[in-house]
Amino acid sequence: MARFAFFDGRMVPINEAKVSIMTHALNYGTGVFEGIRAYWNKERQQLFTFKLAEHFDRFHQSCRILKIGLPYTTRQLCDITIDLLRREGYREDSYIRPIAYKASEGIGVRLHDLIDGFAIFAVVFGKYIDKEEGARAAVSSWRRVDDNAAPARAKITGIYVNSALCKTEVVERGFDEAIVLTQDGHVSEGSAENIFLVRNGHLITPSPTENILEGITRSTIMDIAKKELRLDTIERAIDRSELYVANEVFFCGTGCQIVAVVEIDGRAVGTGKIGPLTERLRNLYFRIARGDMRKYRDWCTPVYAPGGGRSPKPRAAAPKRAKAGKKTGKIKSVRSRRAGSRRS
Ligand code: PMP
Questions:
Q1: Using one digit for the tens of pLDDT, what is the confidence trace for 178-233?
Q2: CA-nearest residue, atom 11 of ligand 1
Q3: Closest to 147 measured CA to CA, from 211, 194, 193
Q4: Which of 65, 68, 105, 239 could form a disulfide with 154 if both were Cys (CB 3.0 to 4.6 A apart)?
Q5: From 102, 155, 330, 332, the catalytic residue
Q6: So what's the pLDDT on residue 130?
Q7: Radius of gyration of the chain from its Cα atoms, rounded to whole angstroms
Q8: What would the mean pLDDT of 164-171 be, rounded to a whole number?
Q9: Across residues 27-33, what is the average pLDDT?
Q10: What's this model's pTM, rounded to 2 decimal places?
């Protein structure tokens, strides 16, 4: 259980980080979030966040799409996260959840003329899909949201209704995870993870225009495949039936990490067991993310001072104020917001 949260510009006990039931984002799904992992490295007695700055860069992109003013730079967001993890003192694999949202209280669907809020909390977290031996997947009858309806490129809270419908449908049918198709029937991604296929030695993944979230693990896999296995990834449209004839299929994402898909719609994928390329990528990924490969250490940010002690507090991240007069960039304290809550 988390003990602290960064909320409304300061670190507070978790039970003080509360919003009203009238909050815009709760009523209309107008928030954006991130999911970041931190790995405990027992040998080094160190907690490493993985690709921290990349997640906050994407967070900024999501905010831009949803017109949310975020008064912190990526660097400041990284500092806040490290500070939060140190306060929690986690010595286990953990998960960090930043969320920026339309915080005004009241009725009215829109993105403009609303107050923006921001929070981060972190929890201890293990596996997301508990299927080390491989997941059984099914194609969902729900389709992926389209970029021109609700852009999947942004990690928007409201869009996760689409993910939830897909996931629950297939889980209730007895499968572990959903594969979601685009409106025109191409493979898009899993309910909350990107997807890769191996066909005849080629590594293939849907291109960014297939209504995917442009996953950080996805780009990490592409990088590792190139650098370690000299394998380029082909980004292209993938037909549904290619899923049935692929030699290997795997999901990847911060939450699920890398999970082999061993069955799709009642058909075994390849041999029906985790494939050799998936296995190699998976092993590399875990070694890299846990901070065990020096070559990739700059992808990992240590939380504690070397030697396992707690280093002094990082510089306080002073909020970079959104430009004056910019209606979407206002951040007010909870107290001032409650006092003068605009009808919105
Ligand atoms: N697609 C969706 C819909 C997701 O929610 C996630 C998890 N954030 C991913 C893909 C994987 O993205 P990442 O590797 O950045 O976690």
A1: 999 999 999 999 999 999 999 999 999 999 999 999 999 999 999 999 999 999 99
A2: 253
A3: 211
A4: 65
A5: 155
A6: 74
A7: 21
A8: 98
A9: 98
A10: 0.90
- H or E element in which residue 163 lies: helix 160-172
Which of these, 75, 83, 39, 48, lies nearest to 59 by C-alpha position?
Answer: 75
> What CA–CA distance (Å, rounded) separates 339 from 344?
15
By CB atoms closer than 10 A (0-12, 13-18, 19+), residue 324 is exposed
Q: What is the pLDDT of residue 321?
A: 38
Closest Cα to residue 217, out of 30, 33, 34? 34
Kindly give, in sequence order, each residue whose CB lies less than 8 Å from that of residue 213, ignoring residues fewer than 6 positions away.
Answer: 152, 153, 155, 189, 194
* pLDDT bracket for residue 336 (50, 70, 90): very low
Residue minimizing CA distance to atom 5 of ligand 1: 192
Query: What's the pLDDT at 342?
Result: 33
Helix (H) or strand (E) holding 177: strand 177-181
pLDDT, mean of residues 138-159: 98
Domain ranges in the chain are 4-126+297-339, 135-274
User: Does the domain spanning 4-126+297-339 belong to CATH 3.40.50.2000?
Assistant: no
**DSSP, res 311:** P
Q: Is 155 one of the catalytic residues?
A: yes
pLDDT at 320 over 80: no
Looking up tokens 């405990």 gives: 40
pLDDT of residue 307: 59
Question: What SS3 state is found at 334?
Answer: helix
Indicate the CATH number for domain 135-274: 3.20.10.10
Rounded to an integer, what distance in angstroms lies between the CA atom of residue 110 and that of residue 102?
A: 10
Q: How far apart are CA 160 and CA 329, in angstroms?
A: 24
What is the percentage of the chain residues whose pLDDT exceeds 70? Answer: 89
Q: Across-strand partners of 156?
A: 32
Cα 113 versus chain centre, distance: 27
Mutate to test the pocket of ligand 1, among 167, 182, 193 (most ligand atoms within 8 A of CB): 193
